[in-house]
C-alpha cells in the first residue's frame, strides 16, 4: 500500500491507498515542535485503531508547505515505517506541463492538486484548495497547468479581522441566514463569509474568461470548501484531491 502525506500549515492530511482505492484517511494537527517520535506514535495509534501495522506500507510520498518539519517527518518515516519518503521537489516527474515562469516556486500541494485535477477531470478545469491560504489553479484545454492565484483563507481572514481591531469579538464561521445582520456576530459572519463567497465567485468568472471556457468545471478541496460550495458556485467537491495527486506522482516516478 502507498501512504500519502500532505503537510499543510494547520493540518497534515494523510491517506493509505491500495491500488486506486483510498482505504483509510486521517488528519492530524501540524505541530512544529513535535519530535519524530511524537509523530510516529500518533500515526502508530491511528494504524493500530484501523487494525493495521505500519509494515503494510510499501512506499511513502510527501508534499509539504512547512519546510521546518520536513526533516522531522522524514526521520519519522525511516524509524516507524522503515521507508524513506519520496518528497515533491524540483525534478520530480509529474506527467503534466507546468506553465509557470519558475516551477521551483510552485507549492508542492498545488502541483499535486494540478496532477489530480488533470487526471480526474481534464481541461479546462479550475481547482480551488480552501486551506490556511486559498489557492486557485487552472488546467487549460491542452491539459497543462496554466497558473493561478492565492488569497488568504477564510479562517485567516476572520482571525485577521478580530486580532486587528479592539472591540470586535471572535465568532464562529457559520453562514447566517441573512446578509443584513442585526447583531455584531451576525454582521461579522455575513461580511466575512458572504464577502468571501463573492470573492471566490468573481475569481471563478475571471478564470473562465481568461481560459476562454465559460463552462470550465470548478473543483474544490480543503477544509472550508463545503461552506463555500453551499452557494452553488462549486461544481464538484473532492476532499481527497491533493492526496490522489500525490499517489499519481508516486506511481509516475516508479
Describe the structure.
With 254 residues, the protein is of the alpha/beta class. The chain folds into two domains: 2-87, ATPase, nucleotide binding domain (Nucleotidyltransferase, domain 5); 103-246, Nucleotidyltransferase, domain 5. The chain has seven helices and ten strands. The strands form two sheets. A five-stranded mixed sheet has the order 3-2-1-4-5, with helices on one face. It has a five-stranded mixed sheet with strand order 8-7-6-9-10, sandwiched between helices. Helix 1 crosses helix 2 and helix 3 crosses helix 7. It is globular, with a radius of gyration of 19 Å. It starts with a strand and ends with a helix. The model has no long low-confidence stretch (mean pLDDT 94).
Question: Layout of SSEs?
Answer:
Blueprint: E1 2-7, E2 11-18, E3 21-29, H1 36-49, E4 59-64, H2 70-81, E5 86-87, H3 108-121, E6 125-130, E7 133-139, E8 145-152, H4 154-163, H5 184-211, E9 217-221, H6 225-229, E10 236-237, H7 241-252
Parallel strand pairs: 1-4, 4-5, 6-9, 9-10
Antiparallel strand pairs: 1-2, 2-3, 6-7, 7-8
Helix pairs in contact: 1-2, 3-7
Amino acid at each position: 500500500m502507498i501512504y500519502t502525506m500532505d503537510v499543510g500549515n494547520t493540518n497534515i492530511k494523510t491517506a493509505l491507498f491500495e491500488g486506486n482505492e483510498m482505504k483509510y484517511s486521517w488528519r492530524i494537527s501540524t505541530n512544529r515542535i513535535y519530535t519524530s517520535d511524537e509523530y510516529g506514535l500518533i500515526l502508530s495509534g491511528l494504524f493500530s485503531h484501523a487494525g493495521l501495522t505500519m509494515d503494510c506500507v510499501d512506499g511513502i510520498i510527501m508534499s509539504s508547505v512547512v519546510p521546518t518539519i520536513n526533516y522531522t517527518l522524514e526521520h519519522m518515516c525511516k524509524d516507524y515505517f522503515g521507508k524513506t519518503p519520496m518528497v515533491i521537489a524540483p525534478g520530480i516527474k509529474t506527467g503534466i506541463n507546468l506553465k509557470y515562469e519558475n516551477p521551483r516556486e510552485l507549492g508542492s500541494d498545488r502541483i499535486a492538486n494540478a496532477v489530480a485535477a488533470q487526471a480526474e477531470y481534464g481541461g479546462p478545469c479550475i481547482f480551488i484548495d480552501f486551506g490556511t491560504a486559498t489557492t486557485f489553479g487552472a488546467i487549460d484545454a491542452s491539459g497543462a497547468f496554466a497558473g493561478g492565484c492565492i488569497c488568504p483563507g477564510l479562517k485567516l481572514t476572520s482571525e485577521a479581522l478580530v486580532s486587528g481591531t479592539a472591540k470586535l469579538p471572535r465568532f464562529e464561521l457559520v453562514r447566517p441566514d441573512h446578509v443584513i445582520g442585526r447583531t455584531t456576530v451576525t454582521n461579522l459572519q455575513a461580511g466575512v463569509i458572504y464577502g468571501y463567497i463573492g470573492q471566490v465567485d468573481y475569481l471563478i468568472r475571471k478564470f473562465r474568461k481568461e481560459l476562454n471556457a465559460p463552462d470550465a468545471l470548478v473543483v474544490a478541496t480543503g477544509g472550508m470548501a463545503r461552506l463555500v460550495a453551499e452557494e452553488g458556485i462549486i461544481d464538484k467537491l473532492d476532499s481527497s484531491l491533493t492526496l490522489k495527486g500525490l499517489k499519481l506522482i508516486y506511481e509516475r516516478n516508479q
